[in-house]
Design brief:
Elements: E1 3-9, H1 16-24, E2 31-38, H2 44-54, E3 58-63, H3 68-78, E4 83-86, E5 92-93, H4 97-107, E6 112-114, E7 117-120, E8 125-128, E9 136-137, H5 139-145, E10 156-159, H6 160-163, H7 175-183, E11 189-192, E12 198-201, H8 217-231, H9 239-259, H10 264-281, H11 296-302, H12 306-317
Parallel strand pairs: 1-2, 1-4, 2-3, 6-11, 7-12
Antiparallel strand pairs: 4-10, 5-12, 6-10, 7-8, 9-11
Helix pairs in contact: 1-2, 7-8, 8-9, 9-10, 9-12
């Protein structure tokens, strides 16, 4: 089997048919489509079973609800493909997506292949780039790319052998960020595709447009990553990349999403926790080598303080 596609399903009855159609019509035929019903209470199961009756490469699995990480892990344990692709049940692929991913992977024996993602909103769509413009050859180039990592799993094809026993952290938000940061030290190269093949449907109830205390998983996840890098002897080698990423996610991504919550107490609590954790783990981060390159984001990170953060909150509260 060339590729195993793992599709977690929960409350996607309006999307799953199109998702599955895009998979069964792939130009790459030697694939298995592993669909995991994560205790979905809607009519997704009926739609999946109808598709399964027509297409023999659809493997339907059902489990109690445990979240997207739990569903992906369940699928990983069943997958037999040489490569793994994760596709959410409300997204879909262009018909030649897996063939292009697979051919690229084989052309250079790449551990991962990455491509841009097309976001589809109500009245528009736009591409999100990968953060790289060429193939990355050797662990040093891969390591440097960690600070530009676009974490969405649907933008990537993974070599199964490299994933090994690695699983998604369950019960948290932003599991794709956490998973890829643990995977990166295992990669020796990354293949780059310039074209987008994934259509990512932005829904109103998606994590990226939802605000509650689970946003604090950013902090817990990155503290866990620091421990993981230390435990597996990656910490010294990846120190600059980990430090920069830790600060960038807590002071930029986390703070920005909190500012969009319009919840002053939540924002204040998050700001205090972000500052405390950065001071605890990376008190000298302003000397980081990646901050030497001038950019607006780097200027913001180097000069980050409570005033900057509160101005961001005020701007987003208007």
């Amino acid at each position: 089997m060339k590729v195993s596609v793992i599709v977690p399903v929960y409350n996607v009855e309006n999307y799953i048919a199109k998702c599955l159609d895009s998979l069964v019509n792939q130009t790459l035929k030697d694939i298995e489509i592993i669909v995991i019903n994560d205790g979905s209470p809607d009519n997704s199961e009926e739609i999946i079973k109808k598709a399964q009756e027509k297409y023999k490469n659809i493997i339907y699995l059902k489990k109690e609800n445990g979240g997207v990480s739990s569903a992906r892990n369940y699928g990983l344990k069943k997958a037999t493909g040489e490569y793994i692709y994760f596709l959410d049940g409300d997204d879909y692929l262009l018909n030649d997506a897996l063939e292009n991913f697979y051919n690229k992977a084989k052309s250079g024996d790449f551990d991962m292949v990455i491509a841009p993602v097309t976001y589809i909103l109500e009245d528009k769509e736009f591409d999100v780039p990968t953060g790289i413009s060429k193939d990355l050859i050797g662990k040093e180039e891969v390591k440097e790319n960690l600070v530009y990592l676009y974490p969405a799993d649907g933008s990537k094809l993974y070599k199964r052998e490299v994933i090994g026993n690695l699983l998604f952290k369950e019960g948290v938000w932003f599991e794709d960020v956490e998973f890829n940061f643990r995977l990166y030290p295992k990669l020796k190269n990354i293949g780059n595709l310039s074209k987008s093949y994934l259509k990512y449907i932005r829904r109103d109830n998606a994590i990226t447009s939802t605000f509650d205390k689970r946003l604090f998983d950013y902090i817990d996840n990155f503290n866990g990553l620091v421990d993981y890098y230390k435990k597996n002897n990656y910490y010294n080698t990846y120190y600059n990349e980990l430090e920069y990423s830790y600060v960038r996610y807590l002071y930029a991504t986390f703070i920005k999403q909190l500012s969009l919550s319009h919840d002053k107490k939540l924002f204040k609590d998050g700001l205090e926790k972000a500052i405390l954790n950065v001071k605890t783990n990376f008190p000298n981060y302003k000397k980081n080598i990646y901050l030497k390159k001038f950019s607006f984001k780097n200027f913001y990170l180097k000069h980050f303080n409570k005033l900057f953060a509160n101005l961001l909150y005020i701007i987003h509260s208007r």
